[in-house]
């Protein structure tokens, strides 16, 4: 997702735009977005063309919303499973007394 420049001695050169890109990637990863989504849309978000940026940002936000909705559904399913297990444990404890 990043391609640093190189000095003549082979050392990597991380210019400010690369550092900024890393910060964006880290922020997106920390928010829970999958690498696949970040890798797919990040180049179009940062290509600098204003005409496409609005459309890409809208597409990106749509993808983020879809991911968030899928995550919320998974959380709800897990919460239901946890509640069922809690009920089972309460029942087992009550009958063991």
UniProtKB/TrEMBL annotation:
Segments passing through the bilayer: none
Pfam families: MerR_1 (PF13411)
Domain HTH merR-type: 1-44
InterPro entries according to UniProt: DNA-bd_dom_put_sf, MerR-type_HTH_dom
GO terms for MF: DNA binding
Coiled-coil residue spans: none
SUPFAM superfamilies for this protein: Putative DNA-binding domain
Protein's GO biological process: regulation of DNA-templated transcription
Organism: Streptomyces violaceusniger
Descriptive protein name: HTH merR-type domain-containing protein
